[in-house]
Amino acid sequence: MATYTQSWRNHVWLAWFALQVPIVLLIDAMHFYPSWLYKPASSPLHFAEVFRQDYIATYNDPFMQWSAATAAGHDSWIGLFLYLEFAFSVPIVVYALYRLGVQRKGTSGADELLLLVYAFETALTTLTCIHDVSYWDPAVYSAELKQTFQLNFLGPWLLMPTLMFVDMVFRILARIKVADAAVAGKKGQ
C-alpha cells in the first residue's frame, strides 16, 4: 500500500494530535471520570479539576459546565458531541499518533480517508459550537467575551481540522488521478 510522506504536513498533524490528547483527556473528559479521580486534593487528576474550575469561574463557559446529570433542554447536544469525541475522535487521534509518530510511515489512502472524515466531523461540531456562542445571553456574555470564545478558544479547533480536510482531499485526489492514469494506460495498450 502506497504512503504519502509529505513530512512537513505530517509533522503538523502529528503536533495537532499530540496537543489534542491532553486537552481531551484532562479537560473534556472530566465529566465522565469518577469524582474520586479528580475531586479530592490528593487525587491524581486534581490539578486538572483546579484548572477547569478556575476556567469556569473566569469565563462561565457553558460547554465546560455541561454534565450528564444536568443535560436538559437546549444544551443536550453538547453531550452528544462529547460522546462522539470519545467514541470516534479519540480512537482516531490515538491511531494517527501511532501511525505518524511511532511508525513514521506517512499516510496510506485508507488513513487519508479516515482523517478526512475525522477532520470533517471535528470541524462541523466545532462550527456548531461557534454558531451557538452567537445565541448566548448578552446579559451574561458580552460581545467581546463571545468573540473570545469564537476566535481564541474555538477558532483553532475549526481552523486546523479544516486545513487537515483540505490536505486530505488533495492527497486523495492525487491518488485518484494516479489510479485513473494507470487505468487509462492499461486501456491504451
From TrEMBL:
Compartmental location: Endoplasmic reticulum membrane
Segments forming domain EXPERA: 9-165
Keywords: Endoplasmic reticulum, Membrane, Transmembrane, Transmembrane helix
Keyword field contains Nucleotide-binding: no
Topological type in the membrane: Multi-pass membrane protein
Gene Ontology cellular component terms for the protein in this record: endoplasmic reticulum membrane
Sequence intervals crossing the membrane: 12-33, 80-101, 113-134, 154-174
Pfam families: EBP (PF05241)
Listed InterPro entries: EXPERA, Sigma-2_receptor-like, Sigma2_recept
Similarity section: Belongs to the TMEM97/sigma-2 receptor family.
Protein name: Efficient mitochondria targeting-associated protein 19
Protein source organism: Podospora appendiculata
